[in-house]
Amino acid sequence: MSDAGRLRTAVAALLALAVVAGCGYGSERVDTGADVVPSGPKLSVDEVRVGHFPNLTHATALVGVREGIIQRELGGTKLSVTTFGAGPAAVEALTSGSVDLAWIGPSPALNSYTRSHGKSLRIVAGATSGGVRFVVDPKKIRTAADVKGKRIASPQLGNTQDVALLDWIARQGWKVDPASGRGDVSVVRTDNKLAPSAYKSGSIDGAWAPEPTASLLVAEGAKVLLDESSLWPDRKFVITNLVVSQRFLKEHPDVVEAVVRGSVRANAWINAEPGRAKDSANEALKALTGKALPDEIIDAAWPSLTFTDDPWPARSAPKPNTPSPPG
Where is this region: Disordered (predicted)? Predict the structure, then answer.
């Protein structure tokens, strides 16, 4: 089968899944950073609005936007990009109609789907597996048992890392009120970009964090207590999927198909050119945050990521391999 044929097959399979398988922090409108401008015939809308996070776990979007891969699939339809700090804020934007598609973690997407009785969102493609670690202050925490009584950060109430942390805490036999974060462990909701300074000041004793936040915390002296992948069968779990509002999918399936094609092509390029892709993702982060990651940070974080178009529906909520605490 040709490359084009394989791409069509992958896109068709992902869109079929979207049709039949249902599954705050602020936002910032950003320049796409792509050299490719809209050209050619427009699709069924003049502009499509997508969202993602300034995280390496969203490298599919970072690279797909920066390299113009997604814009080329859209032809004359303009790509507009908004960044978010965590999934619940992105879900709010999707349900309110301020963005049309977004790369987000599975927990907020599934929560929205459940609360809306299956009427809000659809997962239309996978993006990334892995890239999440539980890092702690080694002066205060040496084993899992030492986490009790400590202050541990997650990015936002209800986001994927927040749910995973609460699940892990429950499996230790401890109790925490999910809403307030109070209990045997203090769960402190902290924007990823603020986590390193919070750790440095002593405001938190660790964090369940995506990359590159986890590696930035390690650079501040934190140690890895566990890699979340160690809790999952075959060390594989969903961290980022491409999600669309059902309204937009129904009204503009051609646009959704184009964005999915762009996402598939972006992952193919990342996997074929990992060195160039890593540099592209870092340049995208520099454009979004004003500062590129140091080489040692991105080099430490990048190997933990797997870029895949498979949304792995069976691994889209915290179901660790074992309830026993890590040594």
Answer: 305-327
Residue 281 domain boundaries: 3-130+236-314
Cα 16 from chain centre: 22
Q: CA quadruple 282, 284, 285, 291: dihedral positive or negative?
A: positive
Helix, coil or strand: residue 260: helix
Task: Please state the domain count of the chain.
Answer: 2
Q: Can you give the pTM of this predicted structure?
A: 0.81
Q: Is the peptide bond before 38 cis (omega within 30 degrees of 0)?
A: no
Report whether 295 contacts 46 (CB < 8 A). Answer: no
Q: Do the beta carbons of residue 161 and residue 155 sit within 8 Å?
A: yes
What does the alpha-carbon distance between residue 256 and residue 245 come to, in Å, rounded to a whole number? Answer: 10
Same domain, 121 and 138: no
User: Of 192, 208, 234, which marks where a domain is finished?
Assistant: 234
